[in-house]
Amino acid sequence: MRDSMRGRFIVFEGPDGSGKSTQLARFAAVAKANGLEVVEVREPGGTSVGEQIRDVLLDPENVDMTIRCEMLLYMASRAQLVEQTIAPALDSGALVLADRFVGSTCAYQGTAGGLPMTEIMEVAEVATGHRMPDLTVIFDVDEATASKRLNPLLDRMEQKGSAFHRRVREGYHQLAESDPEGVILIDATGDEESVHRAAMSAITSKLNDTQSS
User: Where are the domains of the chain?
Assistant: First the structure.
């Protein structure tokens, strides 16, 4: 595990309520136990500047925020995070685990929000400085299961309604279909332990295959 993970950039994605943050924490614990230097980041946020942007993005009072403004704010937070934290960590050989990245923007502001994917990716290239993940792991969960896992005090993104979140899930499926080499889709409807085992197996297998090819 250690050799295949060193200097890798893995993103944990999924709809709200998918359990991705829990699974990221569990994966990080295993990686650290195997002697890896692990840097964990979240989006939006992860830096002082990014956390201030996060407050604006998730504030339920900002109901008039447009989708294009929303996308650009996510990208601004991402730009700060890549330059300040992700790029230096990767350059030092650490394993970087991110709770959301460009895939979230494609699903939420793209497929669900209606922004053209070409525009999103053009901005993403600028924001990330071409630092894209080695692997994106999407935790797929149906709407009913996700709703049971959410905090009753919903943030602005979580309040967007069932039709919006149904399109978000569709967006994630489209990402997986469009990039089978770089994206893994995990069934996250099971219990935490079974999802963890499935994710560990899929991630290590994919990175080992990549390393040997």
Answer: 2-212
- DSSP string over 25-54: HHHHHHHHHTT--EEEEESS-SSHHHHHHH
Instruction: Report the CATH number of the 2-212 domain.
Output: 3.40.50.300
Q: Single out the residue of 34, 41, 116 nearest to residue 71, CA to CA.
A: 116
What's residue 164's pLDDT? 87
Mean pLDDT of 116-122: 98
Q: Answer positive or negative: Cα dihedral of 15, 102, 159, 154.
A: positive
Global pTM reads 0.92
Q: Which helix (H) or strand (E) holds 97?
A: strand 95-99
Only one residue has tokens 């990039």, namely 179
